[in-house]
Amino acid sequence: MTSRTAPTRPAPAGTRFEAIGTTIRLVVTDPAVLEEATAEVRDHLAALDLAVSRFRPDSEVSRLALAAEGGPASALASPTFAGSLRAALRTARLTDGLVDPTVGRAVVDAGYDADIDVVRRRAASAAPTGSPAAVPGWRSITIDPVTDRVEVPQGCLLDLGASAKAHAADVLAQRLAARLPGGFLVNLGGDIALSGQAPDEGWQVAVDDVTGVTLQVVGLVSGQGIATSSTRHRTWFDADGGTRHHILDPRTGHTANATWDQVTCVAANALEANAASTAAVVLGEDAPKWLRTNGIPARLDGPGRVVTTSGWPDPSQGSER
Prior knowledge:
Elements: E1 13-19, E2 22-28, H1 34-52, H2 60-67, E3 73-76, H3 79-94, H4 104-109, H5 116-121, E4 142-143, E5 149-152, H6 161-179, E6 183-188, E7 191-196, E8 203-208, E9 214-220, E10 225-230, E11 235-237, E12 243-245, E13 248-249, E14 254-255, E15 262-267, H7 270-283, H8 287-293, E16 298-302, E17 305-308
Antiparallel strand pairs: 1-2, 2-6, 3-5, 4-5, 6-7, 7-10, 8-9, 10-15, 11-12, 13-14, 15-16, 16-17
Helix pairs in contact: 1-6, 3-6, 3-7, 6-7, 7-8
């Protein structure tokens, strides 16, 4: 009798690059498709940047905001803009407005009016202070279900940053799995979507702190999403010497209290995971209760403490699935 050893699959391959103002990481279980998959990701992110970037005057978001300076405005949205906006409005519904795409003017008033590297390089005195702009509220935004015409109120600047990356991760993961063999991990600045055939050991995802130190490794399956929202990553100093970060509380228009250094959540997809992690930052001390009530496995890291909710693996036990 001759024994045969089952052929082993090649080790996953990956690439890392910068796009849309953040670090992109793509992992594929079939190295033969890495080049094609990377091109797909780059093309989609280029379209996303042109659609929703607040930092380029030719984006659809910027042009719509310019039109809204004198009164209510509308525009026909590209498929990428329309999909991103619908994802943002879904995020707002899921969080009961704790994550709101109409905070753009308030974000600008907080000093985050350019790429984060530009904001950090300029003098702190250049960062605006005082009362923030009003937040119109996500219910003031409409998008026609047939024509994709978007309507916004006067003065509205959309900020889709909290959800657009996560939605794009989901879209790309699904698209790659439908077109190419193998499995895919799409990580867009901490918003991670998983699809296709997982590696032999499953998807092992590291939860890192802002310095890059791995706090924990968690095992996930394809079809899940994981996202981390941080108050320590995109930060800058204002004119009063205080530290600001990029997550605003739409209820006040001010930077959310930095109760948590970061919050990581697991959900059915990256969009829902990002919605939960961002809302948790906004909620501060009320976040663990809100996450538990909504059945969201989460890890909340604060100064000198770690809090987890049901379904999150024990931080002291290493990797689990």
